[in-house]
Write a structure and sequence with these properties.
The complex is a heterodimer of chains A (399) and B (79). With 399 residues, chain A is an alpha/beta fold. Chain A has 14 helices and 16 strands. Chain A folds into 2 domains: 134 residues, Aspartate Aminotransferase, domain 1 (Alpha-Beta Complex), CATH 3.90.1150; 231 residues, Type I PLP-dependent aspartate aminotransferase-like (Major domain) (Aspartate Aminotransferase, domain 2, 3-Layer(aba) Sandwich), CATH 3.40.640.10. In chain A, helix 2 packs antiparallel against helix 11 and helix 6 packs parallel to helix 7. Chain B has one domain: ACP-like (Non-ribosomal Peptide Synthetase Peptidyl Carrier Protein, Chain A). In chain B, helix 1 crosses helix 4. The chains are: A alpha/beta (399), B mainly alpha (79). The interface between A and B is medium-sized, with 18 and 15 residues.
């Protein structure tokens, strides 16, 4: 008998070698107690959270929590059904209405996760004979959406406008085209030149999907994302987003002005063949989204945190993913996985949690310590974080 | 462009990507013999696409494992 698991042997070995060096397992951390959006007890230590994507700190907002508790009492713990059968409650409609208001768009469709939103929309909208043109650094959910559908998949070099244009122009006349972009790329925290890319996509007759998972709530005048910031949101056919970052719960969505959009509810399999979100989740999400529409002060503080951390780490001699802070993600580039893991552990012992990102999730096989800031991090916490990085960086011989 | 002409052009294009100087025949595999990772594949494919003004979609790339198959595919894609 062939052991079907033998294909995982190289990864099993790499993991064993890493743990044999005595490092704490970076992929097996337990949050024993969560004290606030920015502090938790992790593996027995009080730890500042700097790797949660909880950008706007909505997870402990009293109005959000109250909405969830009420929904648990009024609607029960779960829907036990698909959105198209018994799984659409008042709260699902309410959160879709909140999204339409937030983005100023005609249609909103809520999925059980952000992953499923990309999986469902991409695989359904682009079919056999159509072409998907996408950035090579796209998120796994975008790639999986491509793999699940029947369209021809054509990648181009990260953020390379000319490479994208060349590929669009080579697509056979008459074929349907979908350009898939992200507002913020989560590994390095860099943004896309959406203004130029979307203009070129439109000139070449393509529809455009933009994943704004890492920008919602704090990029753009109304927090609608990078496309809004660059003044091209009206040219985006589909915005994909998530509730598991700024909104502070779980779920995914697509908003659109396409006149036929609602038909997707019947033909999109990752929407139809799964249970809908629990009532408590959609009520917390709806409350959070409406509060994010008026969160100007929190946004300003989040940007201040991002700028302070970026400058602080660069001044200490760390190599960062972007020259300037472009989002709420500051990515610190590590020389290799072993030293990255050692640095990650040294930070954890200092009382700081960041994400250790490694190939194949990272571009160019980099090992990254990815920091995501929160609007609830105080200015003092950010200074504390910079000090922790300095001490850990010296101990791990990174700086 | 016939197969020999296409093969000659591709031989020139692959040179900068063949860092270990592997002797290439039609049976040479990209993942195994040449040890191309996904980024190298993307850059190499882009070089061919730009030179021949064609698209080799990922769906088509999945069918191409060795050098000979690549030449055949590029001959076919030129129509």
């Amino acid at each position: 008998m062939t052991d079907l698991f033998s294909k995982f042997d190289p990864l099993i070995e790499m993991r064993a070698n890493l743990l044999a060096s005595g490092v704490e397992d970076p992929f097996n951390l337990v949050m024993e107690k969560v004290l606030s959006p920015t502090v938790a007890i992790c593996n027995g230590r009080e730890t500042i959270l700097l790797g949660t994507y909880n950008y706007m700190g909505m997870t402990f907002d009293p109005d959000v929590i109250e909405a969830g508790k009420e929904a648990l009492d009024d609607f029960g713990s779960g829907t036990t059904g698909s959105r198209v059968l018994n799984g659409t409650y008042a709260g699902h409609r309410a959160v879709e209405d909140a999204l339409k208001d937030f983005y100023g768009m005609d249609h909103a469709m809520v999925f059980s996760t952000g992953y499923q939103a990309n999986l469902g929309i991409i695989s359904t909208v682009a079919g056999k004979g159509d072409y998907i043109v996408l950035d090579i650094d796209s998120h796994a959910s975008i790639w999986d959406g491509c793999k699940m559908g029947d369209a021809e998949v054509v990648p181009f070099r990260h953020n390379d406008i000319e490479a994208m244009e060349k590929r669009l122009k080579r697509i056979p006349a008459g074929a349907g085209k979908l350009v898939v972009l992200e507002g913020v790329y989560s590994m390095l925290g860099d943004i896309a030149p959406l203004k130029e890319m979307i203009r070129i996509a439109k000139e070449n007759g393509a529809m455009v999907l933009v994943d704004e998972a890492h920008s919602m709530g704090f990029i753009g005048p109304n927090g609608r994302g990078v496309a809004e910031e660059q003044g091209v949101l009206d040219d985006v056919d589909f915005v994909i987003g998530t509730f598991s970052k700024s909104v502070g719960t779980v779920g995914g969505f697509c908003v659109s002005n396409h006149p036929k959009f609602e038909i997707l509810r019947l033909v999109c399999r990752p929407y139809v063949f799964t249970a809908s979100l629990p009532p408590s989740v959609v009520h917390t999400a709806a409350t959070s989204i409406r509060k994010l529409m008026h969160a100007g002060n929190k946004r300003a503080h989040l940007w201040e945190n991002s700028r302070t951390l970026h400058k602080g780490l660069r001044d200490k001699g760390f190599q960062l993913g972007t020259e300037e802070p472009q989002s709420a993600i500051i990515s610190v580039i590590m020389p290799d996985l072993e030293r990255g893991a050692a640095m990650w552990e040294a930070l954890l012992h200092e009382g700081l949690y960041v994400n250790l990102a490694r190939p194949p999730a990272t571009p160019a096989n980099m090992t990254l310590l990815r920091c995501s800031l929160c609007a609830e991090h105080t200015a003092e916490q950010v200074q504390t974080i910079i000090g922790m990085f300095e001490r850990a960086g010296k101990r791990a011989a990174i700086i | 462009m016939d197969r020999a002409e296409t093969a000659a052009k591709i031989a020139a294009l692959i040179e900068p990507f063949n860092k270990k100087g592997v002797a290439i025949s039609d049976a040479t595999t990209f993942a195994g013999d040449l040890e191309f990772d996904s980024l190298t594949v993307m850059d190499f494919v882009a070089a061919i696409e730009d030179d021949f003004d064609i698209i080799i979609s990922m769906n088509q790339q999945a069918e191409i494992e060795n050098y000979g198959q690549l030449i055949d595919a590029v001959v076919k894609l030129q129509g």
